[in-house]
From TrEMBL:
Ranges annotated as spanning the membrane: 20-41, 83-105, 117-138, 158-178, 215-237, 264-282
All residue ranges annotated as the ABC transmembrane type-1 domain in the record: 79-282
Organism of this sequence: Lacticaseibacillus saniviri JCM 17471 = DSM 24301
Protein name per the record: ABC transmembrane type-1 domain-containing protein
GO cellular component: plasma membrane
Localization annotation: Cell membrane
Keyword Metal-binding: no
Domain of life, per lineage: Bacteria
Family named by the database record: Belongs to the binding-protein-dependent transport system permease family.
PANTHER family, sorted: DIACETYLCHITOBIOSE UPTAKE SYSTEM PERMEASE PROTEIN NGCG (PTHR32243:SF24), MALTOSE TRANSPORT SYSTEM PERMEASE-RELATED (PTHR32243)
PROSITE patterns, per database record: ABC_TM1
Topology with respect to the bilayer: Multi-pass membrane protein
One GO term of the biological process aspect: transmembrane transport
Record keywords, A-Z: Cell membrane, Membrane, Transmembrane, Transmembrane helix, Transport
Length: 297
């Protein structure tokens, strides 16, 4: 009887624990979903509807808010800038980080420990903390070019912003990819060498395709980071070539003074929608890739 009572009490405890976990998850889901749903609902409201109950459903869908945000407020141009910066930064990051992580993981050479430690240290440096030194360096470069050539290059340049995004993301990317390469068996490389393939061909034809799950994770993770980045874009792009997060700040300031809240929330939806769609589509691959190769070092 004592054993049966203990089993019964354990089952009850497990049931109460599962109930508690489900309640917490439901509360978290509500906290996350309700603000997002409210923004989507507010984006199709007329201005008059904002002065009543903010939780009422819109009487008519004001799709013109999106048209105004896209054209009048310039969100379409800001979206194009964000797409350009994100794509260029991802291409630069993969081209540099993929071979570097493979070399660090699979080869032994003089200075290997130093470079491993160097990139590990970079994991603890938040890019937002060094934005002022980066800005001063670029400003000094522009002042020099202004004196020599009569023009500037480094500030207000989307190419430079993409390059800095890629550079600041290198430590984490190399760390993740190198750990994944370390988990792959050496027999694949040995078979390629026996067939006459060199180091470069082995890397391109054999090892890089095998690292596809980790590469996809790196691309998705850094896409979310680059797309939502605000501080560097605000500091390094003082002109009109703004990205979406910075453009949204200008839209927010303008529409608050004009009391055009529908256009403001339509701009918020334009910023959020690509990220939400991408995360919904690839959330399984993202969480799976973050755990693969992250234990063995």
């Amino acid at each position: 009887m004592n054993v049966e009572q203990e089993k019964t009490s354990q089952k009850k405890a497990q049931r109460w624990y599962k109930l508690f976990v489900y309640l917490v998850l439901i509360l978290l889901a509500i906290v996350i979903v309700v603000p997002i749903a409210w923004v989507f609902m507010a984006s199709v409201k007329s201005n008059a509807e904002f002065y009543g109950n903010p939780w009422t459903l819109p009487k008519h869908f004001e799709w013109s808010n999106f048209v105004s945000a896209w054209t009048t407020a310039g969100m379409g141009r800001y979206l194009g800038n964000s797409v350009f910066v994100t794509v260029v930064a991802l291409l630069l990051l993969i081209v540099i980080a993929l071979p570097a992580s493979y070399v660090l993981a699979r080869f032994r050479f003089v200075g290997q420990r130093f470079w491993n430690a160097y990139f590990m240290i970079g994991l603890f440096i938040n890019a937002n903390y060094i934005v002022v030194p980066i800005f001063l360096m670029l400003l000094g470069g522009d002042q020099f070019l202004q004196q020599v050539m009569g023009q500037t290059f480094f500030l207000n340049n989307l190419w430079m912003l993409a390059l800095i995004y890629a550079a600041t993301a290198l430590p984490f990317t190399i760390y993740l990819l190198a750990n994944y390469f370390r988990t792959l068996p050496a027999s694949f490389e040995e078979a390629a060498y026996i067939d006459g393939a060199g180091y470069l061909k082995t890397f391109i034809k054999v090892m890089a395709p095998m690292a596809r799950p980790s590469i996809i994770t790196v691309i998705l993770f850094n896409f979310l980071s680059f797309w939502n980045e605000y501080i560097m874009a605000l500091t390094l792009i003082p002109g009109e070539n703004k990205t979406l997060p910075v453009g949204l700040l200008n839209l927010s300031a303008a529409q608050k003074s004009a009391q055009n809240y529908g256009q403001l929330y339509a701009g918020l939806v334009i910023v959020m929608l690509p990220t939400l769609i991408l995360y919904i589509l690839v959330q399984k691959q993202l969480t799976k890739g973050m755990t693969v190769g992250g234990v063995k070092g």
